[in-house]
Write a structure and sequence with these properties.
Elements lengths: L2 H20 L6 E2 L18 E9 L4 E5 L8 E7 L7 E2 L3 E4 L6 E9 L6 H11 L3 E4 L12 H15 L21 H7 L9 E6 L9 E5 L4 E10 L11 E3 L11 E5 L2 H4 L5 E2 L6 E9 L1 H4 L9 E2 L2
Helix pairs in contact: 1-4, 3-4
Length: 310
């Protein structure tokens, strides 16, 4: 595997693993609850939304039908082709033709959880998940990849080191074929496979290289957005290590001035404080801003450093 072939190889690996989990192509696989720690299929998953995933054989034509959705509840269908380009993101109900840039196309449906801990909210989203329909005229199984696993793993480790240096994902990491940056997008394939184009969601990466056994805190402005925002904490490898790892508008205690203060650390280290998130060695977080406003898109919105609590 080389830098040039990396995104295809990593996407082949992910598509194949997904097809094995789903049980084939052209089938919708809904995650019925927030992502369990032992079922994380890719790095940096979130708990803001319930995912439904599918791998579609588009070679002879295919469609997805999106049901009518309740007002005020964010949803999207992110399309990713076999080379990790994003031909389109769907935000409207109705039947949509699927592009045929590559034989296989992954669909990542997200429906917002307003209250991730409320069984009634989860049940409502589950009902919506069941109303999406895929129709496809070909159903060839996704073949097992034949890429060299050692070089793929070595490049993934190398690119993840480069990934850790970025606070804001550059615009060119994800986009349509011909629009994405061919010199840097392999870093996004490694560190944030399946990311949105920036106009659809901005991910602000924070890694203060801070110890996990102490308590750290920071106070944030709410990022400008036309949908919603969240903070999710990950371990050094990009996977979630605790169920207490997310803040969003539904569970964040706001300060009187409209800002919010987050504490990063164990209950032992931080005490009984609001907005406390568990951390592990090498911890880092992503702030996700869905349908971001201008100050987020142009990079003028900045995250402060977390500092040790007294």
């Amino acid at each position: 595997v080389t830098q040039k072939t990396y995104c295809r190889a990593e996407t082949d690996r992910t598509f194949y693993n997904a097809s094995q989990m789903i049980g084939g192509v052209n089938k919708l696989f809904p995650f019925r609850n927030v992502t369990p720690l032992d079922r994380q299929t890719v790095v940096r998953m979130n708990k803001d939304t319930l995912y439904t995933v599918a791998l579609v054989d588009t070679s002879k034509g295919a469609t997805i039908t999106v049901p009518e959705m309740p007002a005020g509840r964010y949803f999207s269908v992110l399309m990713l082709d076999n080379d990790h380009y994003c031909p389109r993101v769907i935000y409207t109900s109705g039947t949509h033709d699927l592009p045929q840039d590559t034989k296989y196309l992954s669909l990542n449906v997200r429906i917002q959880l307003l209250r991730p801990d409320d069984p009634a909210d989860i049940a409502l989203v589950n009902e919506l998940q069941d109303q999406f329909v895929i129709k496809a005229n070909s159903a060839d199984p996704f073949p097992e990849p034949k890429w060299d696993k050692e070089s793929l793993a070595a490049l993934t480790a190398e690119y993840n080191k480069a990934f850790a240096k970025f606070e804001l994902y550059p615009d060119g990491w994800m986009g349509k074929r011909g629009e994405a940056d061919e010199n840097t997008r392999h870093i996004g394939c490694a560190g944030a496979w399946g990311l949105f184009p920036n106009k659809d969601a901005v991910y602000i990466n924070y890694n203060g290289h801070l110890p996990a056994d102490k308590c750290h805190s920071a106070t944030y402005q709410v990022p400008e957005n036309n949908a919603f925002w969240s903070i999710t904490v990950y371990g050094a490898d990009g996977y979630m290590k605790s169920v207490n790892n997310i803040l969003n508008v539904a569970n964040t205690k706001m300060n009187a001035d409209g800002t919010f203060t987050v504490h990063f650390g164990s209950k032992e280290a931080c005490g009984d404080v609001p907005n406390r998130l568990d951390v592990s060695e090498g911890w880092n977080f992503l702030m996700r801003v869905y349908r971001p406003g201008q100050s987020v898109l142009n990079g003028s919105y900045k995250l402060p450093d977390a500092v040790p609590c007294k």
